[in-house]
Amino acid sequence: MSAIPFDQREGSIWFDGVLVPWKDATVHVLSHGLHYASCVFEGERAYGGAIFKSTEHSERLLQSGRLLDFEIPYTAAEIDAAKALVVKTNGKPDAYVRPVAWRGSEMMGVSAQNNKIHLAIASWEWPSYFDPAARLKGIRLDMADFRRPDPATIPSKAKASGLYMICTISKHKAERRGYADALMLDWRGHVAECTGANIFFVKDGVLHTPTADCFLDGITRRTVIELAKRRGIAVNERTILPEELSSFSECFICGTAAEVTPVGEIGPYRYTPAAITQTLMEDYSREVLPKAKAA
Fold it and tell me: Which residues are catalytic?
């Protein structure tokens, strides 16, 4: 990945309806989204110029804004078109795509009901989220100290910037300890997710994944479940307790950035990427290809 800071790159960013030079896509320091986390976003990937499940991401972005009590002033179709334009303009058909919406700077305080809602979309090259060699043999996960909160205390179904604060802290700590990421429990002590990806386990040929009742039911997560069912692999969405971690044979995480990434270790527990993980990795790789290329 390039070491060029993200505010100094070349290209264009779609900003409130128009393409602007990358370095001109700036936000004032007194924007409400910066101070009070009134900001939502999406993480998407384009493969061969086509954004995978673009409309599902656009619809979730709009819903995330509503959960934070603001309406993004564009339709899903308009956001889809803007994302496609950005990918085409920047000339990188295999890219990460980041739409982000936030409250502006008209009022500074907790209440900001009349602040303008901004929307920006950027795209850039982003290879595998994890080291390719480590990814093939299975990444190592630490156990996070922070837990996913009770959904009665946060809008857990929103992909909102403020909800990632504990994820950043947890991932930093894990990386300092030599791990690639961290597994988070929820407020009840149940297995939840990683800092930016959902998690799956394999036991006796059955796929097990935590019920997404206090964290995002990821678009990649839903895709993996669909792919497994096409293969006739049973999927059990259920409560998973930490003491069960030793009973699984395979483990992998999934998300737009992570795609499908095998896990070899969670703290003291070891897993061996095998047939089901490999099959779903390959099926996902085929699924994301533009249909004209996949045919």
Answer: 159
Q: Judge whether 6-124 and 132-291 match in fold.
A: no
Q: CB–CB of 46/95 below 8 Å?
A: yes
Within 10 Å of residue 175's Cβ, how many Cβ atoms? 13
pLDDT digits (tens, 9 = 90+) for 134-153: 667 899 999 999 999 999 99
If one looks up domain 6-124 in CATH, what number appears?
A: 3.30.470.10
Mean pLDDT, to the nearest integer, of 159-181?
Answer: 97
**What is this structure's pTM?**
0.93
User: Rounded to whole angstroms, how far apart are CA atoms 126 and 82?
Assistant: 19
The CATH number of the domain covering residues in 132-291: 3.20.10.10
Summarised one tens digit per residue, pLDDT across range 206-224 is 999 999 999 999 999 999 9
Classify the phi-psi angles of 262: left when phi > 0, otherwise alpha if psi is within -120 to 50, otherwise beta: beta
**Residue spans per domain, the chain:** 6-124, 132-291
